[in-house]
Amino acid sequence: MNKTYEATQATRAEVDSLAEPVVIEFGTSWCGHCMAAQPLIESAMADFPALRHLKVEDGPGRPLGRSFRVKLWPTLIFMAGGQEVARLVRPASAGEIGSALRQIANPIS
């Protein structure tokens, strides 16, 4: 699990081309909701150490967040094969994050 938000961003095309499952977390280091969600995200991600976690700093002028229509932080996008599988906005429990992680960790063929 990444602990810091990346200031530089991948492009939407780069994210869509990722074949492996990935969790994209949009937020900022100063956001109270983002800080409150960190223990929940860390707890859920502990069961999925092989999953890639991109922590993307979001805000005005940040095109990746806009391309995913992110409105509130944190927003977690769960992707597999370049497709969005699940989305959580301001998650309230590690259980709901874990449920979404299972959808990409064990995708149904």
Keywords:
single chain, alpha+beta, 109 residues, 4 helices, four-stranded mixed β-sheet
Q: How do the SSEs run, as a string of H and E?
A: HEHEHEEH
Q: What order do the strands of the largest sheet run in, or round the barrel if closed?
A: 2-1-3-4
- Strand content is 15-25%
Question: Roughly how much helix do the residues carry, as a percent range?
Answer: 25-40%
Largest sheet: 4 strands, mixed
- Give me the count of strands: 4
What count of helical segments does DSSP give?
4
List unreliable stretches of 5+ residues: none
Quaternary status: single chain
Radius of gyration: 13 Å
Span between termini: 26 Å
What would you call the structural class?
alpha+beta
Mean pLDDT: 93
Shape: globular
Account of the protein in words:
With 109 residues, the protein is of the alpha+beta class. The chain contains 4 helices and 4 strands, in the order αβαβαββα. The chain has helices at residues 12-16, 32-45, 63-67, 94-105, and strands at residues 22-27, 52-57, 75-80, 83-89. The chain has a 4-stranded mixed β-sheet, covered by helices on one side. β1, α2 and β2 (52-57) form a beta-alpha-beta unit. α2 packs across α4 (94-105).
Topology:
Layout: H1 12-16, E1 22-27, H2 32-45, E2 52-57, H3 63-67, E3 75-80, E4 83-89, H4 94-105
Parallel strand pairs: 1-2
Antiparallel strand pairs: 1-3, 3-4
Helix pairs in contact: 2-4
Structure summary:
This protein is 33% helix and 23% strand. It has 109 residues and is α+β, with helices and mostly antiparallel strands. The radius of gyration is 13 Å and the shape is globular.
